[in-house]
Amino acid sequence: MAETEPKPAAKGVKVDLPRDVANKSDKDHLLRAIRMALDIESPTVRSNTQHFNRSRYRAVAEFPDYDALKDQTRRIKEKSIANLPELVQILKSSVRGHGGHVVVANTAEDACRYILDVCHWRTAKLVVKGKSITSEEIRLNHILEADGIEVVESDLAEFILQLADEQPSHFLAPALHYSRERITALFKRKFQTELPLDTGEALTRFARERLRDKFLYADVGVTGANLIAADTGTLMLVESEGNIRLASFLPPVHIAIAGIEKIVPTRQEMAPFLDLLSASAVGQKMSVYTSFLSPPLTDPAFALPGKPRKPREFHLVLIDNGRMRMRDDPVFKETLYCIRCGACLNSCANFQTVGGHAFGGETYSGGIGGSWEAGTSKLENARFSELCTGCTRCVNQCPVRIDIPWLNVNLGERLNQTEEPSALGNALGLVTGAAQDDRSTPVSKMFFGNYHYFARWGTRFISISNALSGGGKRAEPGAEAEEKEKVSPARRLMERWVGLDHRRALPPFPKQTLVEAARRLEAPSSKGRETKVVLFADVFTNYGMARRGLATIEVLRALGADVVVSESVPEGRAALSQGMIATAKQHVRRATMELDSHVSDGRDIVVVEPSSLSMFRRDFSHLLDSKERFERFRSRAFDPVEYVALMLAKSGRRPQDFFDISKSKVGYRLFFHAHCQQKTIGCAEPTEALLREIGFDVATSNVECCGMAGSFGYKKDFYELSMAVGADLFGQVVLQDRNGGARQLIASGTSCTEQLHAGFDRTVLHPIELLASLLGVQEPSAAKVEEEEEELESDLESVKRARREESKS
Amino acid sequence: MLTYNSPLTDMVDLAATFEENAMEAAAMVWRCERTPLALRKAVGLAAHKARGIVLSEPEFLGDTLIAGLRGLAGVIARPEDDQLATADAGVTEAFAGVASTGSVCVALGRPLVSATSLLMPLNIVLLARERIVARPRDLFDPDCLKGEGLKRNLVFITGPSATADMGPLVHGVHGPHRLLVLLLE
């Protein structure tokens, strides 16, 4: 069905427009913006961002030296920001050397005042603009228009937004949320035309005809700049439409606006960016036009008959507006490395679903946008960064290797610290042992960030806690209203107090945790077993998915490893995801102390839950005291199936000779959904490859994230968004099931499993559980696994009994 | 000095790689003999319905080769700015070509180069085969084309101007709708 302009809402129903919810300094605006985006913009945003994302993967795969290029761009940006004050001075003299003017504006107001002054000096009546996100940041249009100067946006996306009075929803494609049908409706309404305008060509021609005269008669052309070389004063300008070329060539006065972070030392050092920018941005080998200009140009400015030919003039307006403060901040300095390619936006599952009008502020959007908003306006404006789930899918896509999730964790921490401490939050902080610095964290975050504490107590009082939490039970899809009535009072209270959505099922607490069950296993003699492993009993596996841990022990022992299990201590993932960095550091210290003796004993660390493993591989770098300490744990931490593959390779055995596919009780057709963080740290491919080598027919999901990303999808505020993100994954499962019947669902993450359950209510296995079922000989521990399963069944029975009694009462 | 790891083993024939990538970027590429007659014939064919053809001043190819174009029907000898705004075709000389991207690189500054490569619906670019480099970054190497790529005002042009802002991909926005590269053998 063709999309049209959103229909008017029923009388009395307030419909939010993008401008109404642009500033998200309070949570209510953020939630309204998500609703608005899901209602109106989601299908177009999804289609366009996913197209960019697919194209980007294809384009960068063609670079044989992609990683080396990224290292190079990173080094150049680090050097540039480190030497920024000197580079500004060099740039000033370069620009002035060829007759240009240059000014450093400390604030947005200073920048606008200077540009307004230039317009006054040249008696400018008409300013034509190329796309410049920095001009949005300083609100240039409002200032010029308020002074009676006509400002024409010439980039077609900006042209659309100017007509619609909306803020950009994407760095690179500001009107990415507009479908062709909505643009047609907008043009017809604004221009009162009867022309059909029902194709992209017709709309483009219509806009071009209106804009060409503006270019020819413009007094001033305003552009941005992608990079600026200090040594030559050269601007690098990247575009597809040709409007930036026109704006810098036709009018006599050219004003370029750029943040000071765009300066690199030399023109030569622009080269690696030339390769990476277009590929990362839109998946093209190169954008249509990439100009290297050291203005003012030497050819005469354009003059139509009857108009005097004016001399060329060039003004470079470098904007600080908070950037030097960011440079002094040990964390947010990294934001200044951003080249605004948008790769992080396009690879983000939440952004793909709602776009920058929800996942963005008044100017900047997406994962990196929060840091920009906080740096150039105020911290509260970065509240939308809560939509960064920390899934890390952007990390490997950034051409300058910015750790965007880490920036957002820090924003989360600083935002937590602006909250008024509540009595309940304080009490929770006290009993859970949260760090003093994190005591003002809101109650909901305090709960999710200290999940280990509640899980431990939940397990101690298993019957009561399973009954209260409705462990493993979920409201049936399609029966929401009725089911809602059946929600236990305890879940209602949890929803109200800690924001845990009642529609999400919590994994039932097991009668035996992994640690307890492992202790009961009869460990084979360690004699002759050279490979030594400590299975880290992560909180999610220990208290929720003990079966997975037991299967890991079984498979690794069958392969000849000597396996012991650590105590279950939090490794900091939960706390970190809530912006509780000080608490996360405490957890990391405990976890590494617990593992120290094992590592000294020569043991490798196997971690079942991918988000926990990702802590060892990535996040510990920020949380441990030294690089050596980080390396000590990073280099020894493995995913269970990755470790199985390594052991097989080391012993020269083929997977198909060790795992007997004929024993499979779930058929040969699998659908494997890899966890987002598992993909980022490179552990998804070994799993997929191993399953294929064993002989399985493996279909895989290609979504960046299923929408859960740990605790995110469990939260009441984000349940709808999480399910909307999950729709892509559900669609791919359905598609793969279509030929040949349902495939066995395989997933490595606890929360991915919950999301798949929410979509299909089918069994979901961890790959290691599947491997355990294919072992040649049933080890005694297998019986324990069975026992564990029976116990889980019995848990569920107790839940049902409790429910029945509750409904009777 | 920077060093770039740019394995070029996959680009033995730079001209063929250029041709393939330029066409992928929606440009047209015609191979053309480097004689005044052949060039005149090719430009005449490409711009046969053009109401106005504007020639930019050559720098690398030599005036003899270009001189033949001046007699073509429709060529405007000394165009006024209003004629530039309404002409149908512009002929531009390329400073370099880039094999890996199919881009032509145009050096700005000489009379009518900016206008012919930007204002008219059809842009015909003359590219000498020996000026094709493997990758864009090569033009930032001081040893490549006498280091001119580090000194000049340049624009890399990869296909006709385009937008996807109006829904589907559309060629021909503010810049040329068609880009024809005459690859001079």
Written overview of the protein:
The complex is a heterodimer of chains A (809) and B (185). Chain A has 2 domains: 18-324, 3-Layer(aba) Sandwich (Rossmann fold); 514-796, no CATH class. In chain A, 51% of the residues lie in helices and 10% in strands. In chain A, the strands form 4 sheets. Chain A has a 6-stranded parallel beta sheet with strand order 1-10-7-4-2-3, sandwiched between helices. In chain A, α35 links the parallel β17 (744-747) and β18. In chain A, α15 (366-376) packs across α16 (404-418) and α19 (451-460) crosses α20. Mean pLDDT of chain A is 91; it is low at 1-6. With 185 residues, chain B is α/β, with parallel strands linked by helices. Chain B has a single domain (14-161, 170-184), classed as NagB/RpiA/CoA transferase-like (Rossmann fold, 3-Layer(aba) Sandwich), CATH 3.40.50.10420. In chain B, 20% of the residues lie in helices and 24% in strands. Chain B has 5 helices and 11 strands; from the N terminus they run αβαβααβββαββββββ. Chain B has helices at residues 14-24, 36-46, 63-67, 81-86, 113-116; strands at 28-32, 53-55, 89-93, 96-98, 103-107, 122-128, 132-133, 154-157, 162-163, 170-171, 178-184. Chain B is globular and about 40 Å long. Chains A and B meet through α7, α9, α10, α11 and β9 of A and α4, α5, β8 and β9 of B.
What descriptors fit this protein?
heterodimer, A: 809 residues, alpha/beta, Rossmann fold, 2 domains, six-stranded parallel β-sheet, 37 helices, 18 strands, 51% helix, 10% strand, disordered N terminus, B: 185 residues, four-stranded mixed β-sheet, 20% helix, globular
Largest sheet of chain B: 5 strands, parallel
| Order of strands across the main sheet of chain B | 1-11-6-3-2
Q: Any idea of the CATH topology of the largest domain in chain A? A: Rossmann fold
The H-level CATH homologous superfamily of chain B, spelled out, is: NagB/RpiA/CoA transferase-like
Beta-sheet strand percentage of chain B?
A: 15-25%
From the 3D coordinates, which CATH architecture of chain B would you assign?
A: 3-Layer(aba) Sandwich
CATH homologous group name of the largest domain in chain A: NagB/RpiA/CoA transferase-like
Tell me the distance between the termini of chain B: 33 Å
- Number of continuous helical runs of chain B: 5
What is the CATH class designation of the largest domain in chain A?
Answer: Alpha Beta
Q: Which overall shape of chain A is indicated by the principal axes computed on the Cα atoms?
A: elongated
Name the shape of chain B in a single word. Answer: globular
Taking pLDDT < 50 over at least 5 consecutive residues as the criterion, the unreliable ranges of chain B are 1-9
Q: What is the CA–CA distance across the termini of chain A? A: 50 Å
Number of helices, counting only DSSP H or I runs of 4 residues or more of chain A: 37
Helix content of chain A: 40-55%
